[in-house]
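Protein in question reproduced for absentees:

***
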Amino acid sequence: MRAIAVSKYGAKPTIMDLPDPRPAPGEVLIKVSAAGVNPMDRSIANGAWSAQMDATFPLIMGADVAGVVEAVGAGATRFSPGDKVFGQLVVPPLGSTGTYAERIAVAQDANLAPIPVGMEPDTAAALPTAGGTALQIFDRLGSLGGMTMLLVGANGGVGSFLTQIAASAGANVIAVARASAAERLRTYGAVETVDYTKDSVMDHVRVGHPDGIDVLVDVANDADAFAALAKLVRKGGTALTTRYVADADALAGVGITGVNFAVALTPQLLTRLAGEVVAGRITTPPIREVKLDEVPDLYSEDALLGDGKTVIDLST
Protein backbone atom coordinates (compact mmCIF):
# COMPACT_ATOMS: atom_id res chain seq x y z
CA MET A 1 0.00 0.00 0.00
CA ARG A 2 1.02 3.65 -0.37
CA ALA A 3 1.40 5.86 2.67
CA ILE A 4 2.91 9.18 3.75
CA ALA A 5 5.56 8.48 6.36
CA VAL A 6 8.82 9.70 7.87
CA SER A 7 11.90 7.51 8.22
CA LYS A 8 12.93 9.24 11.46
CA TYR A 9 11.77 12.12 13.60
CA GLY A 10 12.14 15.39 11.75
CA ALA A 11 12.52 13.84 8.31
CA LYS A 12 10.55 15.18 5.36
CA PRO A 13 7.33 13.23 4.77
CA THR A 14 7.55 11.04 1.67
CA ILE A 15 5.34 8.57 -0.18
CA MET A 16 6.38 5.02 0.70
CA ASP A 17 5.27 1.61 -0.52
CA LEU A 18 4.64 -0.41 2.62
CA PRO A 19 3.18 -3.87 3.29
CA ASP A 20 -0.60 -4.05 3.53
CA PRO A 21 -1.64 -4.47 7.18
CA ARG A 22 -3.69 -7.48 8.22
CA PRO A 23 -6.18 -7.51 11.08
CA ALA A 24 -4.96 -9.39 14.14
CA PRO A 25 -7.48 -10.92 16.56
CA GLY A 26 -9.79 -8.21 17.84
CA GLU A 27 -8.82 -5.77 15.08
CA VAL A 28 -10.56 -4.28 12.06
CA LEU A 29 -8.98 -3.53 8.68
CA ILE A 30 -10.11 -0.18 7.28
CA LYS A 31 -9.79 0.84 3.65
CA VAL A 32 -9.20 4.57 3.99
CA SER A 33 -11.43 6.92 2.01
CA ALA A 34 -10.18 10.19 3.51
CA ALA A 35 -7.69 11.36 6.14
CA GLY A 36 -7.99 14.63 8.03
CA VAL A 37 -4.91 16.81 8.45
CA ASN A 38 -4.16 18.37 11.85
CA PRO A 39 -1.25 20.37 13.33
CA MET A 40 -0.52 17.49 15.72
CA ASP A 41 0.36 15.26 12.74
CA ARG A 42 3.44 17.36 12.08
CA SER A 43 4.26 17.58 15.78
CA ILE A 44 4.19 13.79 16.12
CA ALA A 45 6.37 13.35 13.01
CA ASN A 46 8.87 15.85 14.42
CA GLY A 47 9.16 13.98 17.73
CA ALA A 48 7.15 16.25 20.00
CA TRP A 49 5.33 13.24 21.46
CA SER A 50 8.40 11.00 21.80
CA ALA A 51 8.42 11.24 25.59
CA GLN A 52 4.76 10.21 25.78
CA MET A 53 4.66 7.22 23.42
CA ASP A 54 7.04 4.90 21.62
CA ALA A 55 7.07 5.03 17.84
CA THR A 56 7.59 2.66 14.97
CA PHE A 57 9.45 3.63 11.81
CA PRO A 58 8.64 4.29 9.10
CA LEU A 59 6.15 6.37 11.06
CA ILE A 60 2.95 6.73 9.04
CA MET A 61 1.45 10.16 9.65
CA GLY A 62 -2.11 11.11 10.48
CA ALA A 63 -4.76 10.37 13.08
CA ASP A 64 -8.15 11.34 11.64
CA VAL A 65 -9.79 8.87 9.28
CA ALA A 66 -12.93 7.96 7.40
CA GLY A 67 -13.23 4.69 5.58
CA VAL A 68 -14.86 1.31 5.10
CA VAL A 69 -14.24 -1.82 7.17
CA GLU A 70 -12.72 -4.27 4.72
CA ALA A 71 -12.14 -7.23 7.04
CA VAL A 72 -12.17 -8.13 10.73
CA GLY A 73 -9.84 -10.26 12.81
CA ALA A 74 -10.84 -13.24 14.90
CA GLY A 75 -13.15 -12.27 17.73
CA ALA A 76 -13.86 -8.77 16.42
CA THR A 77 -17.60 -8.16 16.59
CA ARG A 78 -18.05 -4.39 17.00
CA PHE A 79 -17.97 -3.74 13.25
CA SER A 80 -18.59 -5.84 10.14
CA PRO A 81 -17.11 -5.71 6.64
CA GLY A 82 -18.81 -2.93 4.69
CA ASP A 83 -19.42 -0.69 7.70
CA LYS A 84 -18.48 2.96 7.13
CA VAL A 85 -16.54 4.37 10.09
CA PHE A 86 -14.64 7.48 11.13
CA GLY A 87 -12.49 8.38 14.09
CA GLN A 88 -9.22 9.48 15.60
CA LEU A 89 -6.45 6.90 15.87
CA VAL A 90 -3.62 7.85 18.21
CA VAL A 91 -2.44 4.41 19.16
CA PRO A 92 0.96 3.35 20.53
CA PRO A 93 3.40 2.86 19.03
CA LEU A 94 3.00 6.11 17.11
CA GLY A 95 2.86 5.47 13.39
CA SER A 96 1.34 2.02 13.72
CA THR A 97 -2.13 3.28 12.81
CA GLY A 98 -1.25 6.37 10.79
CA THR A 99 -4.13 7.46 8.59
CA TYR A 100 -2.23 8.95 5.64
CA ALA A 101 -2.34 5.46 4.18
CA GLU A 102 -4.52 3.32 1.96
CA ARG A 103 -5.27 0.82 4.74
CA ILE A 104 -5.12 0.62 8.54
CA ALA A 105 -5.46 -2.25 10.98
CA VAL A 106 -6.55 -1.14 14.46
CA ALA A 107 -8.21 -2.56 17.55
CA GLN A 108 -12.00 -2.63 17.28
CA ASP A 109 -12.31 -0.66 20.54
CA ALA A 110 -10.31 2.29 19.17
CA ASN A 111 -11.92 5.73 18.84
CA LEU A 112 -14.16 4.80 15.93
CA ALA A 113 -17.82 5.49 15.28
CA PRO A 114 -20.24 4.81 12.42
CA ILE A 115 -20.47 7.44 9.69
CA PRO A 116 -24.08 8.64 9.61
CA VAL A 117 -26.11 7.93 6.51
CA GLY A 118 -25.65 10.73 3.99
CA MET A 119 -22.39 12.07 5.39
CA GLU A 120 -19.54 12.14 2.87
CA PRO A 121 -16.13 10.68 3.82
CA ASP A 122 -14.33 14.04 3.50
CA THR A 123 -16.76 15.58 5.99
CA ALA A 124 -16.36 12.67 8.41
CA ALA A 125 -12.56 12.84 8.18
CA ALA A 126 -12.63 16.57 8.98
CA LEU A 127 -14.49 16.07 12.24
CA PRO A 128 -12.64 14.00 14.86
CA THR A 129 -9.71 16.01 16.24
CA ALA A 130 -10.89 19.54 15.41
CA GLY A 131 -14.59 19.08 16.07
CA GLY A 132 -14.06 16.77 19.03
CA THR A 133 -11.62 19.20 20.63
CA ALA A 134 -14.06 22.08 20.20
CA LEU A 135 -16.93 20.09 21.68
CA GLN A 136 -14.86 18.99 24.68
CA ILE A 137 -13.62 22.53 25.29
CA PHE A 138 -17.24 23.66 25.32
CA ASP A 139 -18.12 20.90 27.80
CA ARG A 140 -15.13 21.91 29.96
CA LEU A 141 -16.11 25.58 30.06
CA GLY A 142 -19.70 24.96 31.11
CA SER A 143 -22.43 27.56 30.70
CA LEU A 144 -21.40 30.35 28.33
CA GLY A 145 -24.67 32.27 28.05
CA GLY A 146 -24.01 36.00 28.01
CA MET A 147 -20.26 35.58 28.47
CA THR A 148 -17.62 37.26 26.34
CA MET A 149 -15.11 34.82 24.86
CA LEU A 150 -11.89 35.76 23.06
CA LEU A 151 -11.05 32.94 20.66
CA VAL A 152 -7.53 32.99 19.22
CA GLY A 153 -7.00 30.85 16.14
CA ALA A 154 -10.64 31.03 15.12
CA ASN A 155 -10.00 30.48 11.41
CA GLY A 156 -8.64 26.93 11.82
CA GLY A 157 -10.48 23.69 12.40
CA VAL A 158 -10.91 23.84 16.19
CA GLY A 159 -11.69 27.55 16.11
CA SER A 160 -14.25 27.21 13.33
CA PHE A 161 -16.15 24.53 15.22
CA LEU A 162 -15.88 26.26 18.61
CA THR A 163 -17.07 29.62 17.27
CA GLN A 164 -20.32 27.97 16.21
CA ILE A 165 -20.79 25.90 19.35
CA ALA A 166 -20.07 28.78 21.74
CA ALA A 167 -22.17 31.30 19.82
CA SER A 168 -25.10 28.88 19.72
CA ALA A 169 -24.82 28.60 23.51
CA GLY A 170 -25.17 32.37 23.87
CA ALA A 171 -21.52 33.43 24.12
CA ASN A 172 -20.36 36.73 22.64
CA VAL A 173 -17.43 35.44 20.59
CA ILE A 174 -14.55 37.72 19.60
CA ALA A 175 -12.83 35.74 16.85
CA VAL A 176 -9.14 36.38 16.22
CA ALA A 177 -8.37 35.35 12.65
CA ARG A 178 -7.13 36.50 9.28
CA ALA A 179 -9.34 39.01 7.48
CA SER A 180 -10.11 36.39 4.81
CA ALA A 181 -12.03 34.35 7.40
CA ALA A 182 -13.92 37.23 9.02
CA GLU A 183 -17.14 36.97 7.02
CA ARG A 184 -17.31 33.20 7.49
CA LEU A 185 -16.80 33.50 11.25
CA ARG A 186 -19.57 36.09 11.50
CA THR A 187 -21.93 33.67 9.76
CA TYR A 188 -20.94 31.20 12.49
CA GLY A 189 -22.11 33.71 15.10
CA ALA A 190 -18.99 35.69 16.06
CA VAL A 191 -19.99 39.19 17.18
CA GLU A 192 -16.54 40.65 16.50
CA THR A 193 -13.48 39.69 14.48
CA VAL A 194 -9.91 40.90 14.90
CA ASP A 195 -7.31 40.59 12.14
CA TYR A 196 -4.19 39.80 14.13
CA THR A 197 -1.97 40.56 11.11
CA LYS A 198 -3.07 44.21 11.15
CA ASP A 199 -4.44 45.03 14.59
CA SER A 200 -3.27 44.61 18.16
CA VAL A 201 -5.57 42.07 19.78
CA MET A 202 -4.71 43.47 23.21
CA ASP A 203 -5.60 47.03 22.22
CA HIS A 204 -8.78 46.00 20.42
CA VAL A 205 -10.13 44.11 23.41
CA ARG A 206 -9.07 46.69 25.98
CA VAL A 207 -10.84 49.47 24.08
CA GLY A 208 -13.98 47.49 23.33
CA HIS A 209 -14.16 45.63 26.65
CA PRO A 210 -12.58 47.82 29.33
CA ASP A 211 -13.97 45.63 32.12
CA GLY A 212 -12.30 42.54 30.68
CA ILE A 213 -13.53 39.30 29.16
CA ASP A 214 -14.90 36.18 30.77
CA VAL A 215 -13.11 33.50 28.78
CA LEU A 216 -9.93 33.24 26.71
CA VAL A 217 -9.52 30.21 24.47
CA ASP A 218 -6.19 30.17 22.66
CA VAL A 219 -5.34 27.40 20.20
CA ALA A 220 -2.42 29.18 18.54
CA ASN A 221 -0.06 31.14 20.80
CA ASP A 222 3.12 30.37 22.70
CA ALA A 223 3.51 30.88 26.46
CA ASP A 224 4.40 34.57 26.39
CA ALA A 225 1.60 35.59 24.04
CA PHE A 226 -0.92 33.50 25.97
CA ALA A 227 0.16 35.02 29.30
CA ALA A 228 -0.24 38.51 27.86
CA LEU A 229 -3.75 37.83 26.58
CA ALA A 230 -4.72 36.19 29.88
CA LYS A 231 -4.38 39.64 31.46
CA LEU A 232 -7.55 40.57 29.59
CA VAL A 233 -9.56 38.01 31.59
CA ARG A 234 -11.44 39.42 34.54
CA LYS A 235 -11.20 37.88 38.00
CA GLY A 236 -13.26 34.71 38.17
CA GLY A 237 -12.79 34.02 34.47
CA THR A 238 -11.03 31.24 32.58
CA ALA A 239 -7.96 31.19 30.32
CA LEU A 240 -7.63 27.97 28.34
CA THR A 241 -4.88 26.88 25.96
CA THR A 242 -4.53 23.80 23.78
CA ARG A 243 -0.78 24.40 23.51
CA TYR A 244 -0.20 23.47 27.17
CA VAL A 245 1.51 26.79 27.97
CA ALA A 246 -0.68 28.09 30.82
CA ASP A 247 0.94 28.80 34.20
CA ALA A 248 -2.08 27.65 36.18
CA ASP A 249 -0.59 28.58 39.54
CA ALA A 250 0.22 32.13 38.47
CA LEU A 251 -3.23 32.58 36.99
CA ALA A 252 -4.89 31.21 40.11
CA GLY A 253 -2.97 33.82 42.10
CA VAL A 254 -4.89 36.57 40.30
CA GLY A 255 -8.24 34.80 40.45
CA ILE A 256 -8.28 33.23 36.99
CA THR A 257 -8.71 29.54 36.23
CA GLY A 258 -5.89 28.44 33.92
CA VAL A 259 -6.53 25.34 31.83
CA ASN A 260 -3.99 23.32 29.86
CA PHE A 261 -6.48 21.45 27.75
CA ALA A 262 -5.82 18.02 26.26
CA VAL A 263 -8.52 16.34 24.20
CA ALA A 264 -9.60 12.80 25.09
CA LEU A 265 -11.98 11.58 22.42
CA THR A 266 -14.38 8.69 22.84
CA PRO A 267 -16.63 6.87 20.35
CA GLN A 268 -19.60 8.40 22.17
CA LEU A 269 -18.29 11.94 21.66
CA LEU A 270 -17.66 11.21 17.97
CA THR A 271 -21.22 9.95 17.57
CA ARG A 272 -22.56 13.06 19.30
CA LEU A 273 -20.43 15.31 17.08
CA ALA A 274 -21.56 13.63 13.87
CA GLY A 275 -25.16 13.91 15.02
CA GLU A 276 -24.81 17.65 15.50
CA VAL A 277 -23.45 18.00 11.97
CA VAL A 278 -26.17 15.85 10.41
CA ALA A 279 -28.83 17.84 12.28
CA GLY A 280 -27.39 21.07 10.88
CA ARG A 281 -26.49 22.53 14.27
CA ILE A 282 -22.78 22.49 13.39
CA THR A 283 -21.36 23.32 9.96
CA THR A 284 -18.11 21.79 8.80
CA PRO A 285 -15.60 24.54 7.93
CA PRO A 286 -14.37 24.82 4.33
CA ILE A 287 -12.63 21.61 3.29
CA ARG A 288 -9.64 21.64 0.98
CA GLU A 289 -9.10 18.24 -0.62
CA VAL A 290 -5.66 17.07 -1.73
CA LYS A 291 -4.41 13.78 -3.13
CA LEU A 292 -1.83 11.60 -1.40
CA ASP A 293 0.73 12.41 -4.08
CA GLU A 294 0.44 16.12 -3.30
CA VAL A 295 1.12 15.90 0.41
CA PRO A 296 4.96 15.84 0.52
CA ASP A 297 5.32 18.96 -1.64
CA LEU A 298 2.55 20.76 0.21
CA TYR A 299 3.86 20.00 3.68
CA SER A 300 5.45 23.38 4.18
CA GLU A 301 4.85 25.60 7.19
CA ASP A 302 1.34 26.68 6.25
CA ALA A 303 0.37 24.85 3.08
CA LEU A 304 -1.81 22.24 4.76
CA LEU A 305 -2.81 24.14 7.87
CA GLY A 306 -4.59 27.31 6.73
CA ASP A 307 -8.22 28.31 7.07
CA GLY A 308 -10.73 25.56 7.68
CA LYS A 309 -9.71 21.92 7.19
CA THR A 310 -7.46 20.02 4.80
CA VAL A 311 -8.44 16.46 3.95
CA ILE A 312 -6.47 13.89 1.96
CA ASP A 313 -8.68 12.09 -0.55
CA LEU A 314 -7.74 8.40 -0.82
CA SER A 315 -10.97 7.24 -2.43
CA THR A 316 -9.32 6.39 -5.76
